[in-house]
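Mods, move this if it's the wrong board.
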Amino acid sequence: MKTNNYFILFSNCIPVKGARRSTICDLQKGTYVFIPNTLFALIQDFEKHTIGEILKKHKGLTKQTLNEYIEYLMSYDLGHYTSCPNNFPKINNKTLSPYKINDSILELSAHNYKNAEYIFKSLSNLGCQNIELRSYDIFSLSKLSKLLDFLKSSTIRNVEVYIKYDSSYNEHNYMELCYKHQVVSSILIHSCPEDKSSQNSEHIFYSTQKIASSSCCGQISKEHFNVNLKFYLESLNFNTCLNKKISITAQGNIKNCPSLEKSFGNIKTTSIEDAYKHDDFKSLWNISKDKIEVCRDCEFRHICSDCRAYLKDSFEKPKTCKYNPYTMSYEV
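Not the wrong board. Structure tokens:
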């Protein structure tokens, strides 16, 4: 252990304090590790004091314990020794987007299929980059392909498709769709007879989960953790689910999310651009995890998704989250 040097975390390794334990999120590798809160407290001093100074400052801390902490961090390649900590600036925590809308959800229906060209044009006017296409019922792949044709002149650069299992289609049909429309990043086929992975494409997934309505949205679990820079920066100041998002339900209602009750009009009578301008449309965008009851004490808050639906209070913990940061366990 080099007592005359500093030990600092790499800038992409972010410590997050929880009620009982903390995490360090490696935003480059997409992983996280647990650390005790005592180590979290020490990390706050690492950039200001040399190892020797830290040992003097923390009277109850032994050289052996500090060495074990540092070896643990180095075993995960989370930090390094340096004599000049100022040469390693932290990540800029500001997140800026030139677009009014980044993400959108479109529930597939006969009504929205008829109005797809108008919907995609309106989303492009708002700068939308990503769209999730959801079908709760069987939806023709030929119709889906025609719908995707409208995206060729849009701003949308990424499409995720959720479509119901139809025995009349095989994997080759889905692969053809992906090949023709390379804007499609993934196709999840739900309500399948069995869970399985595609043997031929990394973009196609099969699930037995029945997605019958928007109530299937908002599931919170560690399987849905997002350990990356974009997600982390957004979580610091914004709601990771609703920030810069707009949705159109199967009935044509314009909402922040299909699972939310509040509607800002219907595409029959209200333009998507006018719905965006509504005074309350952005009211949930700034509810970050640090403002939400219980979530603000959770060590996973900056890598976990969120859901503001099905709640009495907009600042409550997500109803579908079963993790308790005070006991570090999942409730049944």
